Amino acid sequence: MHAQDQGAAGGPPVPDDGFIADHDAASGADDDDDDDNAGGKPTTDKKAGRRKIKIEFIQDKSRRHITFSKRKAGIMKKAYELSTLTGTQVLLLVVSETGLVYTFTTAKLQPLVTQPEGKNLIQACLNAP
């Protein structure tokens, strides 16, 4: 994993093992598109709200990173909500294109991402062909 890559992006400090726990998923942004009205001026479109986007690979690296960050926050929030509403145990791993592993876990599954055995298993799966 490339733990040093995250620091340059201005993100949270990354532990040496490259695992980042997103405990603040409940307060994350739910907006998953990056077509925000940057000018702050009202639009004349009758279509208010979100726009439908094509689900295809985003070529522009900057837009891809923004979309990754927003959607990661959204899926972390959904994992938190699922566990809270249904009382289920949830383990979510999101691996960035730089190899950083972001995690959300409920209490019972926390050892899978904090203990060396669990980290080694996850790393072995990620390194498999």
From TrEMBL:
<protein>
    <submittedName>
        <fullName>SRF-TF-domain-containing protein</fullName>
    </submittedName>
</protein>
<dbReference type="GO" id="GO:0046983">
    <property type="term" value="F:protein dimerization activity"/>
</dbReference>
<dbReference type="InterPro" id="IPR033897">
    <property type="entry name" value="SRF-like_MADS-box"/>
</dbReference>
<dbReference type="Pfam" id="PF00319">
    <property type="entry name" value="SRF-TF"/>
</dbReference>
<dbReference type="GO" id="GO:0000987">
    <property type="term" value="F:cis-regulatory region sequence-specific DNA binding"/>
</dbReference>
<dbReference type="InterPro" id="IPR002100">
    <property type="entry name" value="TF_MADSbox"/>
</dbReference>
<feature type="domain" description="MADS-box">
    <location>
        <begin position="48"/>
        <end position="108"/>
    </location>
</feature>
<dbReference type="InterPro" id="IPR050142">
    <property type="entry name" value="MADS-box/MEF2_TF"/>
</dbReference>
<dbReference type="GO" id="GO:0000981">
    <property type="term" value="F:DNA-binding transcription factor activity, RNA polymerase II-specific"/>
</dbReference>
<dbReference type="GO" id="GO:0045944">
    <property type="term" value="P:positive regulation of transcription by RNA polymerase II"/>
</dbReference>
<dbReference type="InterPro" id="IPR036879">
    <property type="entry name" value="TF_MADSbox_sf"/>
</dbReference>
<dbReference type="GO" id="GO:0005634">
    <property type="term" value="C:nucleus"/>
</dbReference>
<keyword id="KW-0804">Transcription</keyword>
<keyword id="KW-0238">DNA-binding</keyword>
<keyword id="KW-0805">Transcription regulation</keyword>
<keyword id="KW-0539">Nucleus</keyword>
<feature type="region of interest" description="Disordered">
    <location>
        <begin position="1"/>
        <end position="52"/>
    </location>
</feature>
